[in-house]
Amino acid sequence: MGASALPADASVLAIDGAVKRFGSRTALAGLDLRLGDGEVFALLGPNGAGKTTTINLILGFLRAEAGTIRVCGIEAGEDPVGARRHVAYIPEQVALYPGLSGVENLRYFATLAGLDPSKDEARALLAEAGLAPEAHGRKAGAYSKGMRQKVGIAVALARRARLLLLDEPTSGLDPSAAADFSATVRAAAERGTAVLMATHDLYRVREMAGRVGVLSGGRIVEEIDPTALDHAALERLYIERLAEVAS
Ligand SMILES: Nc1ncnc2c1ncn2[C@@H]1O[C@H](COP(=O)(O)OP(=O)(O)OP(=O)(O)O)[C@@H](O)[C@H]1O
User: Any idea where the ABC transporter domain is (predicted)?
Assistant: First the structure.
C-alpha cells in the first residue's frame, strides 16, 4: 500500500514498533502505522484490542516501552505538548459548556489554543464542520452527540490540526446522523486532514475510511481496502478476528 511506504518524516503519523504493557498485560505488541495527509484510517478491533492505548500514546498521555510514535516528525513521548499541537482529539462524548452556544463554545476553545476567531469566523468554521446555521446560536446543552462532535471538528479546523483522532465517532448516532457525520469526516480529509478513528462500526467504516486496520493482540494483523470488501466480508473478517482473541 502506497501510503504505508511513506518515509517517517513525510507522514503525519508514524508509529513504529510501539510496545505498551500494563503490568503483565501487553496492550500493544509492536504496532506499526503510517498515515499521510488526507488519509482516513479506521482502527477496527474488539474490546481490549488496544485502540484507546494507541490514542493515548499519540496524545503523549502514555509512553511506549519500545518503539516510536511521531506526529509530524515530533516524538510524542519526548515532546507531548509539541506533538499535541498538531492533533485534535474528539472523544466519544465531546464536552461543551451547556449554557454557551455553539459559536461561544468554539470561540472559547479556540482561545485556549491561542486563537481569537470573530463571531463570523466561528460561524464559518461551524458551517465547514457541517453544523446547520440555525444551531450556531443555540445553547450546546441541547445539542445531540453528532452536533457536539461537529463543534469539536470546528475547533480542530480553527487550530489547523493535521491529525484528527476520533474515538467511536458513530456509536449512539442514528443512521442519518451517522451518515451526516461521515460526510463531515470525509470533507475534513479532503481538505488534507489525516484521520485516525477507533471504531466497532462496520457499517460506517466503508463510507468513512480509505484504509482499515484490524487490531488484534496489540498489532495490526491485517490491513484492508474497505472498498474491496462488501459488508458481509468485512463482518466475517471482524468476527474471525474476534474469535481469535476469545480463543
Ligand atoms: N491503565 C490500564 N491498566 C491496566 N491495563 C490496561 C490499562 N489500560 C488498558 N489496559 C489493558 O490493555 C489492553 C488494551 O486496552 P485498550 O483500552 O487500549 O483497548 P480498546 O481496544 O480501546 O478497548 P475498548 O474497545 O473496550 O475501548 C486491555 O487488555 C486492557 O485491559
Answer: 13-242
Sorted by where each starts, the structural domains of the chain and their CATH numbers stand as 8-95+165-246 (3.40.50.300)
Between the CA of 185 and the centroid of ligand 1 the distance, in Å, is 26
Distance 20 CA to ligand 1 centre (A): 10
Are 206 and 192 a contacting pair, CB within 8 Å? no
- pLDDT tens digit string along 106-144? 999 999 989 999 999 999 999 999 999 999 999 999 999
Specify the ligand 1 atom closest to the Cα of 218: 14
**Ligand 1 near 218 CB (within 6 A):** no
What Rg, from alpha-carbon coordinates, does the chain have? Answer: 18
Alpha carbon distance 51, 223 (integer Å):
15
How far is it, in rounded angstroms, from Cα 238 to Cα 91?
23
Task: Say how far apart CA 154 and CA 176 lie, in whole Å.
Answer: 20
Q: Are 189 and 183 in contact (CB under 8 A)?
A: no
Does residue 31 have its Cβ closer than 6 Å to ligand 1? no
Ligand 1 centroid to 2 CA: how many Å? Answer: 30
Write out pLDDT tens, residues 203-213. 788 888 999 99
C-alpha cell at 162: 493535521
Give the predicted TM-score (pTM) of the model: 0.89
64 lines ligand 1 (CB under 6 A): no
